[in-house]
Specification:
The protein has 168 residues and is mainly beta. It has a domain of 113 residues: Immunoglobulin-like, CATH 2.60.40. It has 2 helices and 10 strands. The two termini are 15 Å apart. 23% of the residues are buried.
Length: 168
Amino acid sequence: MSNILQKAFTRAVYVALLCVSGPAFAEQPVDVSMTSEKQVVIKASAESPNGYVDTYKYVPMEKVSPGEIVRYTINLKNNGNEPAADIVISNKVPADMIFIEQESKNMVVTYSIDKGESFNTPEKLIITNDQGQKRQARASEYTHVKWSRNVSLAAGGKDSLTYLAKLK
């Protein structure tokens, strides 16, 4: 893994660990860990009904080059004897990465375009340019992603969420 990407990854894990909040974290031992893997093409341009689609797999990162995609996976595990509620994870998109998309279940997902000061759904993230014109923010402009689990995590339960980002 490149030195810059390793630092960004370390910061991202640190943010994820710091930002688990609410009663779940205060009263229950919810472990949070993060992994990262590089996307590689295993079959280029396979024909599909909608055109051509590449087939991918994810492998442990050793080195990532500009333009390559990284999948970050955040894993949750409730080590307590009771369900954990109100789990919230906020994660900074590393500065040298461009957010692409996220995937999660049982989560309300919001995004920030102001370095984590405020979060909202994509349709409510509006950018105003110098001429006063407004437009919806692009995913590539997200600086943070926040996942709020909308159901309790059972005692001994596990969950994970992922997001993809591209190295600038």
